[in-house]
Design brief:
The complex is a heterodimer of chains A (422) and B (350). Helices cover 53% and strands 11% of the residues of chain A. Chain A has 422 residues and is of the alpha/beta class. Chain B is mainly β and 350 residues long. The chains are: A alpha/beta (422), B mainly beta (350).
Chain lengths: 422, 350
C-alpha cells in the first residue's frame, strides 16, 4: 500500500513538472511571437460611412462615484447618436446611481436606463435584462469604472465588418497605476497579459479572450444560445468559448485602449481573483470536452483553448506539487525515475520556465516603452504566492458550486474614485 | 558562527534583486499610468486639420505680418514666412514654414523642408520635395514629386508619375494617381488610377454574351456556415448570405454576393464578366480582384491586395481598402474613401 502511495506521489511530481514546463513553453512562445513574429492587424483602421446599430451596456450597482464619468465620455463618442444607444443597468443600487442615470436619460434620448429591483442581482442577470431590450445588432459592454475615449466605440464596432468575428476585445489600461505596490504590479501584469499574451494569441489565430468589458459581441449569437449563464461568474470566458466552438473569432485590438480602476487593497484583489478563478473553473468544467470535440477549432486552437481553460487550475496543481515534494523529501523518496532526466527538467524549468512570465511582462513593458518600471519585476514573487493561495481557493469553491449546484452571487469590486464628475 | 555568516549571505543574496524595485518604489521615475489619447477620433485629414487649426488661430488673431514671423507648432517657436498674395517659388530650398494666402507655384526640384500652408491652389514642380503641406483649394504634383510626411488638400489632387506620397495624402474631392505613384495612406472622394483602354462599367457590364442562368446559393445569416475547402466558381452564381471559407476562393465568371466574403486563404477574382459584392471582403491572405467589379463594402487583407477594374464605395459613402504588407492599384480603380497599407502601396505602371 505504502509503495503504491509513494509511486502515485512520484508520478504526480513528474506530472507537475511536465505541466509547468508546458506553460513555460507557452509563455516563451507567445513572447517570441510578439517580439519577432508577424503581427496581425486588427480592424480599427477601417473607415466606413455605414454604421452598425450598437447598444452599449453598463451594469451598475452603487456606482454614483463612477456613473457620471463613463456617461460623460460615452455621450462625447464620435459614433453617430442615431446608431447608438447607451443602456446603463442600475442593478439594485442603494446610492444615487438611479437618479444620476435618470438625469442623463432626460438630457440624452439615446440613453435608455434599466432599473432592476429584482433580488436576483448580478452582472450576468443585468446583461440578460439589457439584451432583452437592446436594439443594437452589436452589444458593447463596459464596467462602470471604465473611461472610454472618443473614438473607442467606432473602432471596436468596425471589427464586426468581418462576418467571422463574433466578439471583439480592446486593451485594458490602469489609471490608478501609481497608487501603491499592488496597483503598480497589476499594471505590469496587464501589460504582459494584453500587450504580449492577447496579441500573440491573435497573431497566431488562437483564442484571444473576450474580457467582459472594453469589448463586444453580436447580440444574436448570445440570445440564440439562451443569454448569459447566471450560474457562471466568468461570463466573459464562457462567451469566449461559446463563440469559438461555434466557429466565430474573437478579434483583439491592442491599440484600442481604455482606462480602468484596479484594486488598491490586497484584500479586494484577493476577492476579485478568487471570483475570477471560481468563474473560470466553472467554464473549464463546462467547456473542456466541447473544446476537445469542437469541429470548428483546429489542433492549435484546441490546445490553446485547453491551456487557457486550465489557467486557473494550475496554481492548485502546483500547491499540491509542493506538498507532494515535501512529503517525498521527508520520506526520503525523492529518487524519481532517473536523476538525470529530473534534474534536466527541473534545471530547464528553473532557467527558462520560472522566468517566462517575467520575460512576458518585461517584453510587454519594452513594447509599451515604459522600461524603468520593470525594476519591480522581482516583487512578482509575492503576487505569485498570493495568486497561488486565492486562485486555489476559487478553484475549491468552483468544485463545491458544481457538486452542490450552488447558486453564485456577484460581488462587486470596490471603487476608489473620490468624487463624481461635475 | 559559520551558520550565522551563511544565513547573512543568504539573506543578502535574497534581498539583492529587490533593491532596484525598492528604489523605484521610494523614488519613482516610471509610475505614471500609461498614456491613452482620450480625444482620439479617426480622421484621415488629421495632420492637415491640426496644422490649419494652429495657423488659422494665429491668422485670426492678426499675429502674422508679411515676411518673417514666429509660431509655436510644438514646444519650440519656429519661423513662418508669410506671403500675402500669390507666390512663384523658384529657389531651390525653403527652410521655413510658409504661409501663402493666394496660389503657390513652385518650379522643378524645389525643396520645402518645413510645413507649407497654401490658401489657394498649389502646383509643385517635378522633382520637388515637400515635407508637409495643407492646401485649401486644389493641388497638382508634377512627376517625381516627393512628399516626406503628409499632404492635405480640401479640393482635388493630381499626382504625377513616379510621385512618392509620404505617410498620408488626403483630399476632399478627387485624388487622381498616375503610374508609379507610391503611398502609405490615401483618402479621396474618389481615389482614381489611370483608366484602362477597355471600357469598364463596374459590375454592370452588358457584354451581350449568353452566359446562362446563374445558380443561386443561400446561407443563413443566423448560423455561421464555414466551408472547410477551396472553392472555385467557374459558372455564374448568386450567393445570398455570408461566404466563409477555410481555404481559397477563386471566381472566374459572373458572380454576385449579397453578403460578406471571409476567407482564411486567398481571394482571387479574375474575370471579364460582372462581379458584384454587396458586402465586405476579408482575407487572412492575398486578395486579388481583377476585372469588372463593383464592391459595396470594405476590402481588408492581412497580406497583399491587388486591384484592377474595381469600384469601391460611392460618392460620400466611404469605404476602406487595407492591406498589411503591400497594396497594388492597377488600372481603372475607383475607391471612394480610404486606402492604407503598413507596407508599400504602388500604382502599377505599363
Amino acid at each position: 500500500m505504502v509503495i503504491l502511495i509513494i509511486a502515485i506521489l512520484k508520478i504526480y511530481i513528474l506530472f507537475v513538472i511536465f505541466v509547468m514546463m508546458v506553460y513555460a513553453v507557452r509563455h516563451n512562445f507567445f513572447t517570441f511571437n510578439r517580439l519577432f513574429g508577424n503581427q496581425k492587424m486588427c480592424y480599427q483602421d477601417i473607415i466606413d460611412s455605414e454604421f452598425i446599430m450598437v447598444s452599449i451596456m453598463i451594469p451598475m450597482h452603487n456606482e454614483e462615484k463612477t456613473a457620471p464619468h463613463i456617461l460623460d465620455l460615452l455621450v462625447k463618442s464620435d459614433y453617430p447618436a442615431s446608431k447608438m444607444e447607451i443602456i446603463p443597468i442600475n442593478d439594485n443600487s442603494t446610492d444615487k446611481t438611479r437618479h444620476i442615470i435618470d438625469d442623463y436619460a432626460l438630457r440624452y434620448s439615446f440613453i435608455k436606463p434599466i432599473h432592476r429591483d429584482s433580488k436576483n442581482k448580478g452582472k450576468m442577470q443585468a446583461l440578460n435584462d439589457g439584451l432583452a431590450v437592446a436594439a443594437g445588432e452589436i452589444i458593447l459592454v463596459f464596467d462602470a469604472d471604465y473611461l472610454p475615449g472618443k473614438g473607442l466605440v467606432r473602432d471596436l464596432v468596425v471589427a464586426f465588418k468581418d462576418p467571422k468575428v463574433g466578439g471583439v476585445m480592446g486593451r485594458v489600461m490602469i489609471i490608478n497605476a501609481n497608487k501603491n505596490l499592488l496597483t503598480r504590479l497589476l499594471d505590469l501584469e496587464r501589460t504582459g497579459g494584453y500587450q504580449v499574451d492577447q496579441q500573440a494569441r491573435y497573431n497566431l489565430g488562437l483564442i484571444p479572450q473576450y474580457g467582459g468589458t472594453v469589448g463586444g459581441f453580436r447580440k444574436e449569437l448570445v440570445i440564440s444560445s439562451g443569454g448569459f449563464n447566471e450560474n457562471i461568474l466568468a461570463e466573459d470566458t464562457e462567451l469566449t468559448f461559446r463563440l469559438s466552438i461555434k466557429g466565430y473569432d474573437i478579434a483583439y485590438a491592442n491599440r484600442l485602449e481604455c482606462y480602468e480602476e484596479t484594486p488598491e487593497e490586497w484584500r479586494i484583489r484577493a476577492n476579485q481573483i478568487k471570483r475570477w478563478s471560481r468563474g473560470h473553473n466553472r467554464v473549464m468544467f463546462k467547456y473542456l470536452f466541447p473544446v476537445i470535440k469542437a469541429k470548428n477549432l483546429n489542433f492549435c486552437q484546441k490546445l490553446d483553448g485547453i491551456l487557457l481553460l486550465f489557467v486557473y487550475l494550475i496554481p492548485f496543481i502546483f500547491i499540491l506539487g509542493i506538498l507532494d515534494s515535501l512529503i517525498l523529501f521527508f520520506m526520503g523518496e525523492m529518487n524519481l525515475v532517473n536523476y538525470v532526466i529530473v534534474y534536466l527538467l527541473i534545471g530547464g524549468y528553473v532557467v527558462f520556465g520560472s522566468f517566462a512570465p517575467f520575460y512576458q511582462i518585461g517584453t510587454g513593458a519594452f513594447l509599451d516603452r515604459v522600461s524603468y518600471r520593470i525594476r519591480l519585476l522581482p516583487f512578482f514573487y509575492f503576487i505569485f504566492i498570493f495568486n497561488l493561495f486565492f486562485i486555489s481557493q476559487g478553484f475549491i469553491e468552483s468544485i463545491i458550486d458544481v457538486i452542490f449546484n450552488r447558486k453564485v452571487s456577484w460581488q462587486k469590486t470596490i471603487r476608489y474614485k473620490k468624487e463624481a464628475a461635475e | 558562527m559559520n551558520f550565522v555568516i551563511l544565513i547573512t549571505v543568504f539573506m543578502i543574496l535574497i534581498f539583492l534583486p529587490f533593491i532596484p524595485g525598492i528604489l523605484e518604489l521610494l523614488f519613482p521615475i516610471d509610475d505614471k499610468p500609461m498614456s491613452v489619447r482620450m480625444d482620439y477620433s479617426k480622421d484621415p485629414s488629421y495632420f492637415g486639420s491640426s496644422f490649419r487649426r494652429i495657423m488659422d488661430s494665429s491668422i485670426s488673431k492678426g499675429e502674422f505680418k508679411e515676411g518673417r514671423n514666429e509660431i509655436k507648432l510644438s514646444s519650440v517657436p519656429e519661423s513662418v514666412v508669410v506671403i500675402y498674395g500669390d507666390f512663384n517659388h523658384d529657389g531651390e530650398n525653403f527652410e521655413n514654414i510658409v504661409l501663402v494666402s493666394g496660389d503657390l507655384i513652385s518650379k522643378y526640384n524645389n525643396s520645402f523642408n518645413k510645413e507649407i500652408y497654401v490658401k489657394g491652389n498649389a502646383v509643385f514642380g517635378g522633382g520637388s520635395v515637400i515635407r508637409a503641406a495643407a492646401v485649401d483649394k486644389n493641388a497638382e504634383l508634377k512627376e517625381q514629386t516627393k512628399i516626406i510626411r503628409w499632404l492635405d488638400v480640401k479640393g482635388s489632387i493630381t499626382a504625377g508619375e513616379e510621385s512618392y506620397l509620404g505617410v498620408s495624402v488626403s483630399c476632399g474631392e478627387k485624388l487622381q494617381l498616375s503610374k508609379g505613384c507610391r503611398f502609405r495612406r490615401l483618402f479621396g472622394n474618389p481615389i482614381l488610377t489611370p483608366v484602362n483602354a477597355r471600357s469598364i462599367n463596374y459590375g454592370s457590364l452588358k457584354n451581350g454574351k449568353n452566359i446562362g442562368e446563374p445558380s443561386i446559393i443561400s446561407y443563413s445569416d443566423k448560423i455561421i456556415k464555414i466551408i472547410n475547402r477551396d472553392i472555385k466558381y467557374e459558372e455564374p452564381v448568386i450567393i445570398n448570405g455570408n461566404l466563409i471559407i477555410n481555404g481559397n476562393l477563386e471566381i472566374k465568371n459572373e458572380f454576385t454576393i449579397n453578403g460578406d466574403i471571409k476567407a482564411n486563404g486567398k481571394v482571387l477574382i479574375d474575370t471579364v464578366e460582372n462581379v458584384t459584392i454587396n458586402g465586405n471582403v476579408v482575407s487572412e491572405s492575398v486578395i486579388s480582384m481583377k476585372g469588372n467589379i463593383k464592391a459595396v463594402g470594405d476590402i481588408f487583407s492581412q497580406d497583399e491586395i491587388y486591384l484592377e477594374g474595381v469600384n469601391i464605395g460611392s460618392f460620400n459613402n466611404f469605404k476602406s481598402v487595407i492591406a498589411k504588407k503591400k497594396l497594388t492599384l492597377g488600372k481603372s480603380v475607383e475607391i471612394y474613401g480610404f486606402v492604407s497599407t503598413e507596407g508599400i502601396g504602388i500604382v502599377e505602371g505599363e
